[in-house]
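TICKET: design request
STATUS: open
ATTACHED STRUCTURE:
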């Protein structure tokens, strides 16, 4: 008997594109038997793990479209300035207040412990003490999710029951494919939804994010060339986030590249593929751009639905 595993990568506001993909999967009868998430992907995974239904996927899409949700995901300029001033005055370990993030997590969490969810969920963090990714399938749900989303320096690290302090899993493992494959059986199918502007799961020649692509992840020849838009760097927080995004891409690409040829793995189209095929109308500036989350949800749905129509059936591993 085969199972369906979903791997949800991080990406801040780009998680809206991932939700569109999840909605398309749900409408096509793809229901997860296990979820693996990091950062924003962990939040989406936790939402679904409490009830992996089409109705729940639609609720998640609606949640991403609301402006009040954006304020929880990205503190405003005044909140940032207050947080920075407070951090300097108190010599705190981070520039921003984690309480809005905890409020968001408490809204998403459907249990007190990871092990209590309806569908098994594994959340990835980075252990600051050992410098390695950690994949949690049990433990306090709120603390583990907050840790997985805590960009170092911006949000304080979280001490988990193992006694170590943990931060954003995307530092070394933003797309926890390896953890999913360790759990997967030979006949299981592993769907990967990578929301990166520079996706780490892209394959040369077959992903519009990479040079000389003659295919957009199974959607056919690109209609237009993908060029990442320049990201505005207005103040220190933006610069830190941009640097983190670049470092994350380099570290994560090397972590998953050798796994993409596994016959159980099915990588859904990326944001550059949606743009190149004309299904995404507004290119996001970066993971803190919440101006067009509705368009991202719509594009994620459309590109994934079209891919499911065209993608060949997965082959069982030997």
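STATUS: resolved
RESOLUTION: sequence designed for all positions
ATTACHED SEQUENCE:
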């Amino acid at each position: 008997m085969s199972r369906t595993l979903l791997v949800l990568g991080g990406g801040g506001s780009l998680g809206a594109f991932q939700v569109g993909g999840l909605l398309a999967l749900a409408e096509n009868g793809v229901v997860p038997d296990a979820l693996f998430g990091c950062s924003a992907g962990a939040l989406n995974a936790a939402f679904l793990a409490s009830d992996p239904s089409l109705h729940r996927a639609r609720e998640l899409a609606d949640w991403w479209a609301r402006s009040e949700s954006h304020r929880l995901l990205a503190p405003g300029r005044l909140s940032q300035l207050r947080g920075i001033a407070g951090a300097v005055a108190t010599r705190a370990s981070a520039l921003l207040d984690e309480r809005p993030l905890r409020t968001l997590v408490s809204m998403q969490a459907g249990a007190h412990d990871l092990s209590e969810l309806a569908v098994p969920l594994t959340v990835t963090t980075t252990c600051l003490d050992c410098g390695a990714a950690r994949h949690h399938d049990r433990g306090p749900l709120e603390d583990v999710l907050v840790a997985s989303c805590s960009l170092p320096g911006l949000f304080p690290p979280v001490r988990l029951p193992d006694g170590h302090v943990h931060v954003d899993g995307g530092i070394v493992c933003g797309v926890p494919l390896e953890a999913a494959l360790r759990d997967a059986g030979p006949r299981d199918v592993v769907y990967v939804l990578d929301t990166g502007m520079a996706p780490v799961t892209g394959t040369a020649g077959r992903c519009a994010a990479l040079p000389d692509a003659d295919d957009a992840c199974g959607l056919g020849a690109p209609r237009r060339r993908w060029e990442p838009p320049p990201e505005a760097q207005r103040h220190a927080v933006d610069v830190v986030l941009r640097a983190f995004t670049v470092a994350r891409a380099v570290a994560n690409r090397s972590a998953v590249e050798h796994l993409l040829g596994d016959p159980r793995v099915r990588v859904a189209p990326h944001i550059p593929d949606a743009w190149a095929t004309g299904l995404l109308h507004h290119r996001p500036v970066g993971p803190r751009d919440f101006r067009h989350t509705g368009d991202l949800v719509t594009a994620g749905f459309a590109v994934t639905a079209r891919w499911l129509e065209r993608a060949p059936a997965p082959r069982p591993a030997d």
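CLOSING REMARK: Residues 24 and 116 are 26 Å apart (CA to CA). Confidence is low (pLDDT under 50) at residues 87-91.
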